[in-house]
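Q: Could you predict the 3D structure of F-box associated beta-propeller type 1 domain-containing protein?
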Amino acid sequence: MYNNNLYLWNPSTRKNKILPFSSCTKYSRCDVTFGFGYDEFNDDYKVVEIYGVYDIHYVYDANIKIYSLRSNSWKIMKKYSDALFSSDSGVYLNGCVHWAVAHNDGSCIYWDIVSLNLKNEKFGNFALPSFDGFDHSRSLGDSSDFELGTMNWSLGKLGDFLCLFCDYYKVKLDVWIMKEYNAKGCWIKSVSLPYVSGVGPCISPLWISDIGGEVLLHDGTCVMVYDSKNDEYKCVEICEMNGDGVGAATVYAESLVSPYLDNIENTPEMQ
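A: Sure. Here are the predicted structure tokens for F-box associated beta-propeller type 1 domain-containing protein:
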């Protein structure tokens, strides 16, 4: 974050590799997001770096670079015009990395999901769920971002499904699951989490029980469990955290294989 270093890390083996500098141009108003995933066709792991430059008139311009672990190099992609990618990390599923993206058509801002296929490195778009009370667009210059009930949303993955977290500011959080990948009418609302004082501003569910009775989540400061039967939240104690809080949390698949890392010498362990 402060010295522009970017690492690939296998938490199972603790092996890591520092990536070559991408030469990302730094701007005073610049949102940077990353995505990571496996290109099965080319047997390659890839990192996607997107830095979007914007101004007070909501002019969006997304610059894109892709790193190949096999070649250990970056390449510049064609810019994605009139789009501001969410600063959340991209969500990898079905050979693609996905982001929540805001578009500007000149009169309003509207939202959708943008995917990047790691095989052919081409973009696609997904529609959002349709239901009463959900507005996909917002007029330019609208300053209602933090009014009670204003909706914000982000992407996630629960198990093998792409998920959409619809956050009604200080009211509730609805979790939608894409049961069939990129199919019409595929979004199903799984659970609704109530807002209570003390829960952080950025709720991200990590796991939902099969019957939806319990939800493991991260709220921006700690890991919690929501018990729907008793309608209550409980903090999860994590050993050796010393009360410092949890800035981020994710779910990963364990593996003892680190492609192109196993033969790298002088690679220090990252705890």
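Q: Anything worth pointing out?
A: The chain has no helices and 21 strands.
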